Amino acid sequence: MAEPKPPQFRPETLAIVSGYDPETASRSAKPPVYMTATFTYPSAQSAKDVHRAYFDGDGPEAGGALHIYSRLGHPGLDVLEARLAAIDGAEAALAYNSGMAAQTAVALAYLRPGEAVVHSRPFYSGVDGLFNEIMPQFGSHAEAYTDGCDEANMWAACERAMTKGPIALLAAESPGNPTAALVDLDLLVKVAGRIEAAQGRRPIVMVDNTLLGPFHQRPIEHGVDLVVTSLTKYCAGHSDLLAGAITGRKDLIEPLKLQRLVWGSHLDPYTAWLVLRSLETVHLRTARAMENAAAVADWLRAHSKIAGVTYLGFTPEGSPARAVFERQCRGAGSTFSFRLHGGEAEAFRMLDRLKLLKMAVNLGGSNTLICHSASTTHYAVSPENRLKSGITEGTIRLSVGLEHVDDIIADLAQALEAV
Ligand code: PLP
């Protein structure tokens, strides 16, 4: 894999300045929104040259800003994609109309009939369903590993997969949603090498970086090929839009761009602009949310009605996961789960009493959001697989936001009285 160039500026700066030149837009200090479906040409020859450059990469327009029809790309997407790549330290990026559109793009492009995906579990339920229910309808198969810090556990899943066909995709969500289970990204890349030695072809290594986001975990620096991020979460950060990104190796991203124009899953001009705006502050918002989350997690852990808190910051000292956490993560995140003594009835009683915290399934927004995992985000996952992922009937997921931390804790305290 070609080494990504070291960025001239740090990611916090790149999030504000990269990918946009005011000279291209009437010296507007900020990128404008181009609300158009299509772009005009000064001559028939220039129309042909733009198409030639877009599809064949050569001719007089090659290397220029190639705008034809917004499904094929638009100026807002150019700026956003340059910025996403710069922040992640990646060679290239693509923006999609949701995180699932981005995940689906990778699966459809790189998982063929007879091939396997080996993935961590828990993985966001939409992706778990994509790998285990939808893609098998096209002839691929999936195997899961549940301990992403243990080579033997990961390798056992790979061996099971290779009995049925070659592994095309080695995937991980880290930390996992909602149990904060970590996958060791250095180990993942090492296992990709072992798979290559065993089957004669290296699988593509793909990591879902939604839960920590680009400022607190940097998968490309570990040798991961493709990073998928649901921008809907921390990057957009206000629970008011859906978007997704793929960053990584240029040779893998380019075919995805040509396929995206067929799927029609590009990000539209206005939403692309909103994401750009949010990217400027994502490092500040996530840092504050993480501070709040650390205080809330401490408070919950000490509460008599709470059976356990799975918060990355509580990963036991001396454990393999702790070593991975310290090497790989630049923060403990602000989405975690806790278990009440009791099951669904107790959880529902508590949730129905909340006044400030909103019951909703998104995460990474400015509002603190809370939900009962088994009956919402993981409703479609079988009870057996839920339990394997550590999700019980008493598990509640909390995405801590930016309200004053004392107000968040006060609301949890009064709601827990109902249990
Ligand atoms: N990956 C993770 C870890 C998620 O939590 C989600 C959504 O919850 C997705 C992917 C899918 O993203 P989107 O909802 O933007 O389609």
Description:
This protein is α/β, with parallel strands linked by helices. About 40% of the residues lie in helices and about 15% in strands. The protein contains 14 helices and 12 strands. It has helices at about 10-15, 45-55, 75-90, 100-110, 125-135, 150-160, 185-200, 250-265, 270-280, 280-300, 320-330, 345-350, 385-390, 405-415, and strands at about 90-95, 115-120, 140-145, 165-175, 205-210, 225-230, 245-250, 305-310, 335-340, 360, 370, 395-400. The strands form 2 sheets. It has a 7-stranded mixed β-sheet, with helices on both faces. A 5-stranded mixed β-sheet has the order 8-9-12-11-10, with helices on one face. Strand 4, helix 7 and strand 5 form a beta-alpha-beta unit. Helix 3 (about 75-90) packs parallel to helix 9 (about 270-280) and helix 6 runs parallel beside helix 7 (about 185-200). The radius of gyration is 22 Å and the shape is globular. The termini are far apart. The model has no long low-confidence stretch (mean pLDDT about 95). The structure holds pyridoxal-5'-phosphate. Pyridoxal-5'-phosphate binds next to helix 4 and helix 5.
